[in-house]
């Protein structure tokens, strides 16, 4: 069976059970082979992965297959583009599902009785689809109990006509027996972690059984990395660029960096032959650096100094994407003046402050492990994929394609959480601070941005000719913004997003409003979580946060972002 690397990345990784369509059996992935990805920004990627692992450890959950001594070293990792999957048959039980319900075990290598029909009632045998899983990462076939008189040879699993496994019973079908074995399907795991939970049954394909853990990064251009990541005033530069101020100071900072590199190289070469001159050069560097403090002053004017680092980290991706990737305003793509006016009115009506387009948005998606059971940090182990020789393994893909960045109004976002701020720059700074520091209202802001992004992905898919599963989001919650981009992997961008910007932006806004205004399962959907697969949920390859922090009420509720644009209850 043929699959793209993007499909393998989420559905066929080690530890995952899947349907083998060619042989019509269920298998579990043992190994994934592929080419090594060498051009990824490993420093940024590993910093984010290790931050996730550290947070898990602080929260008290287990971390498996991550070596504490080497996991922070980029040289200790290999990142593969998945190309070939090696698996084996799993789960290891056959059942006479339509007949006597007897079960027949397979051996560990997937062999065992090569029976197509039940030897007793002659009905067709099929794999039992229920498995046992645990938060520690364990995955097992159901364990068949012994009948006290007849052993396991005639055991049947009776579902009693119920989908709930709590109602299922083991029964011995030996002649004259028919004894019910009072052993539940659940059992305690012998791992020693998560003692409050047990191995429990579920369908092998359930999202609870395998949840991939991923990180997305923007592959920073060299110029932007030097200025916003590696420079002496990197954080201040990111903060001022985020607010759209201090352009002259940033140009001076770039020039300073170039001079520093040249003078440092010269000083190193003079260290042996002329140490006094080398010392003078270094002192001159220090004087120039101490005189270049304007970026810091700009940052202090809008942000409390205690939050500079936190906010700088959260807005960095947005700054690099907007400045370094070559995004241009949508107006540059629409030549018809009358159409421009209609689009401007439509975007303004739904609170879109700006919309930018780029034909080359460089991103990478990496899956660094998986979890089973709990969906939040502290509820399930983070399980890594083990090693390839002496290196830890992650799986990923690179992507460069059409994209749009949509930025929402900061003043309008703040009004949704009861914060009044009319000045645009101060509103933007306040918004970023709230999200970065987790102040009250931060979760609501993230819900608004995330739900808006999902509605927009679906609308863009409708008018670009692209399936929503072939697109993905990149969230910038601290900036009140998000990107929608095409997933092409090693393929070629179809140009659908660019054509959509040129011709159909007005229709995209209408489709977006329709998507978030109603759901086929309303009022149940709106009254419970405000989001489901029928309205704003996306496939896991498309959603950055696995469909969490979504709620249409954050947009169309009484205090929602679109409360003035979309009538409540529509």
Polypeptide structure, described:
- The protein has helices at 5-11, 42-58, 222-230, 234-243, 247-270, 275-291, 294-302, 308-324, 337-349, 410-415, 424-437, 442-464, 496-503, 505-517, 524-528, 553-556, and strands at residues 17-20, 25-36, 63-64, 77-89, 93-95, 103-105, 126-127, 130-133, 139-141, 155-158, 169-172, 180-181, 200-203, 211-218, 328-329, 352-371, 382-383, 387-388, 391-408, 471-476, 481-486.
- The protein is α+β, with helices and mostly antiparallel strands.
- Strands 1, 2, 4, 14, 15, 16, 18, 19, 20 and 21 form a 10-stranded mixed β-sheet that branches. A 3-stranded antiparallel β-sheet has the order 6-5-7, with no helix packed on it.
- Helix 12 crosses helix 13.
- It is globular and about 95 Å long.
């Amino acid at each position: 069976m043929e699959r793209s690397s993007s499909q393998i990345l989420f559905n066929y990784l080690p530890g995952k059970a899947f349907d083998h369509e060619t042989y019509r059996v269920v298998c579990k992935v043992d190994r994934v082979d592929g080419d090594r990805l060498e051009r990824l920004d490993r420093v940024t990627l590993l910093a984010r992965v290790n931050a996730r692992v550290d947070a898990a450890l602080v929260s008290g959950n287990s971390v498996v297959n991550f070596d504490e001594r080497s996991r922070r070293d980029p040289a200790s990792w290999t990142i593969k583009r998945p190309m070939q999957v090696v698996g084996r048959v799993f789960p290891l039980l056959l059942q006479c599902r339509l007949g006597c319900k007897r079960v027949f075990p397979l051996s560990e290598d997937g062999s065992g009785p090569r029976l197509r029909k039940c030897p007793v009632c002659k009905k067709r045998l099929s794999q039992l689809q229920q498995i046992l899983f645990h938060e520690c990462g364990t995955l097992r076939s159901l364990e068949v109990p012994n009948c006290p008189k007849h052993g396991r040879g005639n055991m049947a699993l009776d579902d009693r006509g119920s989908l709930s496994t709590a109602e299922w019973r083991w029964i011995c079908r030996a002649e004259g027996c028919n004894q019910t074995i009072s052993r539940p399907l659940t059992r305690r795991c012998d791992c020693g972690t998560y003692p409050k939970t047990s191995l429990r049954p579920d369908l092998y394909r359930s999202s609870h059984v395998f949840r991939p853990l991923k990180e997305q990064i923007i592959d920073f251009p060299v110029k932007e990395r030097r200025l916003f990541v590696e420079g002496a005033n990197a954080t201040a530069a990111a903060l001022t660029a985020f607010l759209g101020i201090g352009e002259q100071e940033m140009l001076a900072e770039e020039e300073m960096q170039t001079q520093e590199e040249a003078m440092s190289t010269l000083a190193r070469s003079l260290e042996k032959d002329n140490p006094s001159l080398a010392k003078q050069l270094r002192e001159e560097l220090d004087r120039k650096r101490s005189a270049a403090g304007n970026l810091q002053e700009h940052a202090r004017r809008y942000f409390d100094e205690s939050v500079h680092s936190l906010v700088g980290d959260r807005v960095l991706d947005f700054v690099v994407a907007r400045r370094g990737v070559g995004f241009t305003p949508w107006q540059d793509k629409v030549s018809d003046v009358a159409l421009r006016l209609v689009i401007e009115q439509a975007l303004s009506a739904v609170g879109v402050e700006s919309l930018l387009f780029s034909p080359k948005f460089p991103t990478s998606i990496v899956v660094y492990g998986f979890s089973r059971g709990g969906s939040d940090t502290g509820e399930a182990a983070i399980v890594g994929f083990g090693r390839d020789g002496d290196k830890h393994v992650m799986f990923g893909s690179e992507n460069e394609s059409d994209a749009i960045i949509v930025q929402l109004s900061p003043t309008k976002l703040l009004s949704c959480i009861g914060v009044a701020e009319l000045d645009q720059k101060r509103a933007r700074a306040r918004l970023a601070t709230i999200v970065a520091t987790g102040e009250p209202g931060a979760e609501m802001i993230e819900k608004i941005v995330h739900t808006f992004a999902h509605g927009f992905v679906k609308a863009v898919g409708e008018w670009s000719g692209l399936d929503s599963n072939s697109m993905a989001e990149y969230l910038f919650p601290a900036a009140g913004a998000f990107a929608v981009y095409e997933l092409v992997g090693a393929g070629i961008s179809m140009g659908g997003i660019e054509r959509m910007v040129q011709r159909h932006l007005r229709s995209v806004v209408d489709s977006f409003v329709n998507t978030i205004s109603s759901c086929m399962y309303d009022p149940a959907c709106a009254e419970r979580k405000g989001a489901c697969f029928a309205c704003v949920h996306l496939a896991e390859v498309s959603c950055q946060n696995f469909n969490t922090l979504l709620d249409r009420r954050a947009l169309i509720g009484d205090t929602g972002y679109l409360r003035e644009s979309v009538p409540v209850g529509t």
